[in-house]
Design brief:
By secondary structure, the protein is an alpha+beta fold. The chain has seven helices and 18 strands. Strands 1, 5, 6, 9, 12, 13, 16, 17 and 18 form a nine-stranded antiparallel beta sheet that branches. Strands 3-2-4-7-8-10-11-14-15 form a nine-stranded mixed beta sheet, with no helix packed on it. A hairpin with a 2-residue loop joins strand 10 and strand 11. Helix 2 runs parallel beside helix 5 and helix 5 runs antiparallel to helix 6. The longest helix is centred in the N-terminal third of the chain and has 16 residues. The chain starts with a helix and ends in a 49-residue tail after the last helix.
Length: 299
Protein backbone atom coordinates (compact mmCIF):
# COMPACT_ATOMS: atom_id res chain seq x y z
CA UNK A 1 0.00 0.00 0.00
CA UNK A 2 2.81 2.43 0.88
CA UNK A 3 4.54 1.68 -2.44
CA UNK A 4 1.29 2.31 -4.29
CA UNK A 5 0.74 5.65 -2.57
CA UNK A 6 4.30 6.78 -3.33
CA UNK A 7 3.89 5.78 -6.98
CA UNK A 8 0.63 7.69 -7.29
CA UNK A 9 2.22 10.78 -5.72
CA UNK A 10 5.13 10.64 -8.18
CA UNK A 11 2.77 10.25 -11.14
CA UNK A 12 0.72 13.21 -9.95
CA UNK A 13 3.83 15.36 -9.73
CA UNK A 14 4.89 14.37 -13.24
CA UNK A 15 1.44 15.13 -14.66
CA UNK A 16 1.53 18.64 -13.22
CA UNK A 17 5.12 19.53 -14.12
CA UNK A 18 5.95 17.84 -17.43
CA UNK A 19 4.18 18.57 -20.70
CA UNK A 20 4.62 16.62 -23.91
CA UNK A 21 4.73 18.19 -27.36
CA UNK A 22 3.99 17.08 -30.90
CA UNK A 23 4.93 18.62 -34.25
CA UNK A 24 1.68 20.12 -35.55
CA UNK A 25 3.02 22.03 -38.57
CA UNK A 26 6.07 21.67 -40.80
CA UNK A 27 7.17 23.82 -43.73
CA UNK A 28 10.28 23.06 -45.77
CA UNK A 29 13.53 22.40 -43.88
CA UNK A 30 12.72 21.44 -40.29
CA UNK A 31 14.93 19.03 -38.39
CA UNK A 32 15.51 17.68 -34.90
CA UNK A 33 18.97 17.37 -33.41
CA UNK A 34 19.84 14.64 -30.89
CA UNK A 35 23.45 13.89 -29.98
CA UNK A 36 24.61 15.84 -33.06
CA UNK A 37 22.41 13.66 -35.30
CA UNK A 38 20.22 15.72 -37.64
CA UNK A 39 16.89 14.12 -38.55
CA UNK A 40 14.12 15.60 -40.69
CA UNK A 41 11.04 16.42 -38.61
CA UNK A 42 7.64 15.18 -39.74
CA UNK A 43 4.07 16.04 -38.89
CA UNK A 44 2.87 14.40 -35.65
CA UNK A 45 6.42 13.62 -34.46
CA UNK A 46 6.67 13.63 -30.69
CA UNK A 47 9.43 15.88 -29.41
CA UNK A 48 11.78 13.96 -27.16
CA UNK A 49 13.03 15.70 -23.97
CA UNK A 50 16.01 18.00 -24.51
CA UNK A 51 15.80 17.68 -28.30
CA UNK A 52 16.71 20.70 -30.40
CA UNK A 53 14.59 21.81 -33.34
CA UNK A 54 16.20 23.75 -36.18
CA UNK A 55 14.77 25.39 -39.29
CA UNK A 56 16.30 26.41 -42.60
CA UNK A 57 15.53 29.03 -45.23
CA UNK A 58 11.82 29.87 -45.72
CA UNK A 59 10.96 27.21 -43.15
CA UNK A 60 8.69 27.01 -40.12
CA UNK A 61 7.67 24.58 -37.43
CA UNK A 62 4.87 24.50 -34.88
CA UNK A 63 4.78 22.47 -31.68
CA UNK A 64 1.50 21.83 -29.86
CA UNK A 65 1.71 20.84 -26.20
CA UNK A 66 -0.78 18.72 -24.30
CA UNK A 67 -1.65 21.66 -22.02
CA UNK A 68 -2.94 23.67 -25.05
CA UNK A 69 0.25 25.72 -25.30
CA UNK A 70 1.67 26.39 -28.76
CA UNK A 71 5.20 27.30 -29.87
CA UNK A 72 5.98 28.43 -33.41
CA UNK A 73 9.52 28.57 -34.78
CA UNK A 74 10.43 30.80 -37.73
CA UNK A 75 13.12 30.36 -40.35
CA UNK A 76 16.82 30.09 -39.45
CA UNK A 77 15.93 29.36 -35.83
CA UNK A 78 17.10 26.95 -33.13
CA UNK A 79 14.81 25.88 -30.29
CA UNK A 80 14.85 23.37 -27.43
CA UNK A 81 12.44 22.43 -24.66
CA UNK A 82 13.31 20.87 -21.32
CA UNK A 83 10.15 19.05 -20.35
CA UNK A 84 10.63 18.48 -16.62
CA UNK A 85 11.94 22.01 -16.00
CA UNK A 86 9.24 23.57 -18.22
CA UNK A 87 12.01 25.57 -19.85
CA UNK A 88 12.07 26.78 -23.47
CA UNK A 89 15.44 27.84 -24.87
CA UNK A 90 15.39 30.10 -27.92
CA UNK A 91 18.62 30.32 -29.87
CA UNK A 92 18.92 32.73 -32.78
CA UNK A 93 15.68 33.17 -34.73
CA UNK A 94 12.04 34.16 -34.33
CA UNK A 95 9.63 32.41 -31.98
CA UNK A 96 6.04 32.59 -30.77
CA UNK A 97 5.05 31.15 -27.39
CA UNK A 98 1.35 31.06 -26.50
CA UNK A 99 0.42 29.75 -23.06
CA UNK A 100 -3.10 28.92 -21.92
CA UNK A 101 -4.08 30.98 -18.82
CA UNK A 102 -5.35 27.96 -16.87
CA UNK A 103 -2.06 26.03 -16.91
CA UNK A 104 1.21 26.31 -15.01
CA UNK A 105 3.75 28.89 -16.25
CA UNK A 106 6.83 28.11 -18.30
CA UNK A 107 10.14 29.96 -18.49
CA UNK A 108 11.66 31.09 -21.79
CA UNK A 109 15.30 32.06 -22.25
CA UNK A 110 16.11 34.22 -25.28
CA UNK A 111 19.42 35.96 -25.75
CA UNK A 112 20.39 37.39 -22.36
CA UNK A 113 16.87 37.50 -20.88
CA UNK A 114 14.39 35.14 -19.27
CA UNK A 115 10.62 35.51 -19.42
CA UNK A 116 8.00 33.88 -17.21
CA UNK A 117 4.92 33.15 -19.31
CA UNK A 118 1.45 32.16 -18.15
CA UNK A 119 -1.78 33.12 -19.90
CA UNK A 120 0.11 35.06 -22.55
CA UNK A 121 1.12 35.12 -26.22
CA UNK A 122 4.64 36.44 -26.76
CA UNK A 123 6.96 36.91 -29.75
CA UNK A 124 10.75 36.67 -29.48
CA UNK A 125 13.44 37.73 -31.93
CA UNK A 126 17.02 36.74 -31.11
CA UNK A 127 20.21 37.34 -33.06
CA UNK A 128 23.81 37.80 -31.97
CA UNK A 129 22.90 38.19 -28.30
CA UNK A 130 20.29 40.89 -29.00
CA UNK A 131 16.75 39.94 -28.00
CA UNK A 132 13.44 41.66 -28.69
CA UNK A 133 10.33 40.60 -26.78
CA UNK A 134 6.78 41.61 -27.77
CA UNK A 135 3.71 40.74 -25.70
CA UNK A 136 0.69 40.23 -27.94
CA UNK A 137 -1.67 39.59 -25.06
CA UNK A 138 -1.40 38.65 -21.40
CA UNK A 139 -3.75 38.06 -18.48
CA UNK A 140 -1.07 38.23 -15.80
CA UNK A 141 1.87 40.25 -17.15
CA UNK A 142 5.12 38.90 -18.58
CA UNK A 143 8.17 39.63 -16.44
CA UNK A 144 11.38 39.85 -18.45
CA UNK A 145 14.63 39.68 -16.48
CA UNK A 146 18.08 40.43 -17.90
CA UNK A 147 21.38 38.81 -16.95
CA UNK A 148 22.00 41.55 -14.34
CA UNK A 149 18.76 40.77 -12.51
CA UNK A 150 16.97 43.89 -13.75
CA UNK A 151 13.32 43.13 -14.52
CA UNK A 152 10.43 44.80 -16.29
CA UNK A 153 6.86 43.51 -16.43
CA UNK A 154 5.22 43.84 -19.84
CA UNK A 155 1.50 44.07 -20.46
CA UNK A 156 -0.52 43.50 -23.62
CA UNK A 157 0.80 45.58 -26.52
CA UNK A 158 4.20 46.20 -24.93
CA UNK A 159 7.73 45.08 -25.73
CA UNK A 160 11.34 45.40 -24.65
CA UNK A 161 14.79 44.92 -26.15
CA UNK A 162 17.95 43.62 -24.52
CA UNK A 163 21.59 43.70 -25.57
CA UNK A 164 24.30 41.45 -24.08
CA UNK A 165 24.80 44.06 -21.33
CA UNK A 166 21.17 44.12 -20.20
CA UNK A 167 17.78 45.70 -20.97
CA UNK A 168 18.03 48.45 -23.59
CA UNK A 169 15.36 50.79 -22.16
CA UNK A 170 14.13 51.81 -18.74
CA UNK A 171 10.55 50.81 -19.47
CA UNK A 172 8.30 49.09 -22.01
CA UNK A 173 8.04 50.05 -25.67
CA UNK A 174 4.74 50.17 -27.58
CA UNK A 175 3.74 47.36 -29.91
CA UNK A 176 0.99 47.62 -32.54
CA UNK A 177 -0.60 44.19 -32.12
CA UNK A 178 -2.80 44.28 -35.23
CA UNK A 179 0.07 45.37 -37.48
CA UNK A 180 2.39 42.78 -35.96
CA UNK A 181 0.01 39.84 -36.30
CA UNK A 182 -0.74 40.82 -39.90
CA UNK A 183 2.96 41.06 -40.82
CA UNK A 184 4.49 38.09 -38.98
CA UNK A 185 4.45 34.68 -40.72
CA UNK A 186 4.18 33.16 -37.26
CA UNK A 187 0.55 34.36 -37.36
CA UNK A 188 -0.28 34.48 -41.07
CA UNK A 189 1.05 31.15 -42.39
CA UNK A 190 -1.78 28.91 -43.62
CA UNK A 191 -2.26 25.62 -41.78
CA UNK A 192 -1.18 26.70 -38.30
CA UNK A 193 -3.11 25.41 -35.30
CA UNK A 194 -5.57 27.84 -33.65
CA UNK A 195 -4.32 29.58 -30.52
CA UNK A 196 -6.19 29.04 -27.27
CA UNK A 197 -5.73 32.77 -26.54
CA UNK A 198 -7.16 33.99 -29.87
CA UNK A 199 -10.08 35.82 -28.22
CA UNK A 200 -7.71 37.73 -25.94
CA UNK A 201 -5.60 38.78 -28.95
CA UNK A 202 -8.73 40.13 -30.64
CA UNK A 203 -9.54 42.01 -27.44
CA UNK A 204 -6.15 43.75 -27.44
CA UNK A 205 -6.52 44.70 -31.10
CA UNK A 206 -9.97 46.11 -30.39
CA UNK A 207 -8.73 48.17 -27.44
CA UNK A 208 -5.80 49.53 -29.43
CA UNK A 209 -8.19 50.28 -32.30
CA UNK A 210 -10.28 52.50 -30.02
CA UNK A 211 -7.13 54.29 -28.89
CA UNK A 212 -5.98 54.78 -32.49
CA UNK A 213 -9.25 56.49 -33.31
CA UNK A 214 -8.42 58.96 -30.55
CA UNK A 215 -5.00 59.64 -32.09
CA UNK A 216 -2.73 57.17 -30.31
CA UNK A 217 0.07 55.34 -32.13
CA UNK A 218 1.58 52.03 -31.05
CA UNK A 219 4.06 51.49 -33.88
CA UNK A 220 7.70 51.13 -32.85
CA UNK A 221 10.93 49.54 -34.02
CA UNK A 222 9.83 46.32 -32.30
CA UNK A 223 7.09 45.94 -34.92
CA UNK A 224 9.74 46.26 -37.65
CA UNK A 225 11.93 43.62 -36.01
CA UNK A 226 9.11 41.09 -35.62
CA UNK A 227 7.98 41.57 -39.23
CA UNK A 228 11.54 41.21 -40.54
CA UNK A 229 11.77 44.77 -41.86
CA UNK A 230 14.63 45.65 -39.49
CA UNK A 231 17.35 43.65 -37.77
CA UNK A 232 17.79 43.74 -34.01
CA UNK A 233 21.00 45.77 -34.02
CA UNK A 234 19.48 48.53 -36.17
CA UNK A 235 16.40 48.58 -33.94
CA UNK A 236 18.52 49.09 -30.84
CA UNK A 237 20.18 52.09 -32.49
CA UNK A 238 16.78 53.56 -33.35
CA UNK A 239 15.12 53.00 -29.98
CA UNK A 240 14.77 55.69 -27.36
CA UNK A 241 12.39 58.38 -26.22
CA UNK A 242 9.11 56.69 -27.14
CA UNK A 243 6.34 56.30 -24.58
CA UNK A 244 3.77 53.53 -24.49
CA UNK A 245 0.33 55.10 -25.08
CA UNK A 246 -2.16 54.66 -22.27
CA UNK A 247 -5.00 52.73 -23.86
CA UNK A 248 -7.57 53.54 -21.18
CA UNK A 249 -6.76 57.26 -21.40
CA UNK A 250 -6.88 57.25 -25.19
CA UNK A 251 -10.21 55.46 -25.07
CA UNK A 252 -11.52 57.97 -22.54
CA UNK A 253 -11.79 55.62 -19.60
CA UNK A 254 -8.86 56.12 -17.27
CA UNK A 255 -9.57 56.73 -13.63
CA UNK A 256 -7.94 59.77 -12.08
CA UNK A 257 -4.95 59.58 -9.82
CA UNK A 258 -3.03 56.77 -11.49
CA UNK A 259 0.71 56.51 -10.94
CA UNK A 260 3.00 56.89 -13.97
CA UNK A 261 6.13 54.72 -13.81
CA UNK A 262 9.50 55.84 -15.02
CA UNK A 263 9.67 55.82 -18.80
CA UNK A 264 5.89 56.13 -19.22
CA UNK A 265 3.88 58.89 -20.83
CA UNK A 266 2.14 61.54 -18.81
CA UNK A 267 -0.83 60.11 -16.94
CA UNK A 268 -0.03 56.56 -18.03
CA UNK A 269 -1.19 53.70 -15.88
CA UNK A 270 0.76 50.53 -15.43
CA UNK A 271 0.63 46.94 -14.32
CA UNK A 272 -2.77 45.44 -13.66
CA UNK A 273 -4.54 48.75 -14.35
CA UNK A 274 -3.89 48.71 -18.09
CA UNK A 275 -6.82 47.17 -20.01
CA UNK A 276 -8.59 46.67 -16.70
CA UNK A 277 -12.36 46.26 -17.35
CA UNK A 278 -13.10 47.70 -13.91
CA UNK A 279 -11.68 51.00 -15.15
CA UNK A 280 -13.10 50.75 -18.65
CA UNK A 281 -15.86 48.14 -19.10
CA UNK A 282 -15.82 48.70 -22.89
CA UNK A 283 -12.52 46.81 -23.19
CA UNK A 284 -13.77 43.28 -23.73
CA UNK A 285 -12.51 40.64 -23.23
CA UNK A 286 -10.36 41.65 -20.23
CA UNK A 287 -6.78 40.97 -21.20
CA UNK A 288 -4.98 42.02 -18.05
CA UNK A 289 -7.06 41.47 -14.95
CA UNK A 290 -4.68 39.66 -12.60
CA UNK A 291 -2.52 41.93 -10.41
CA UNK A 292 0.40 39.61 -9.65
CA UNK A 293 2.60 38.57 -12.61
CA UNK A 294 4.70 35.42 -12.38
CA UNK A 295 8.29 36.39 -11.68
CA UNK A 296 11.07 35.12 -13.91
CA UNK A 297 14.19 33.74 -12.27
CA UNK A 298 17.48 34.32 -14.11
CA UNK A 299 19.08 31.05 -15.17
Amino acid sequence: MIKLLITLMVLALVDHSAIASVVSFVKNDVHSIQDTNKVAAALNDKLQPDTQIGTGDKSMCELSFDDKSVTRIGEHSVFSFQEQERLIKCGDGKFLVSKDPDTAPITVTAGGVTAAIAGSTVLFDVKGGIAHVAVVETTSGVTVTDENGKAVTLQSGEGIAAAPGGLASAGPRPVDVKAMTEASPLFTEAGLAPLANAAAIQGVMGAQGIAKQAGASFASEINDVMSGKMDGASALAKAGGMDVPDIDTAAGGEAAGSNAPAGSGAGAISGSQQFNPLMNPNLVPPVNSKPNPFEATPI
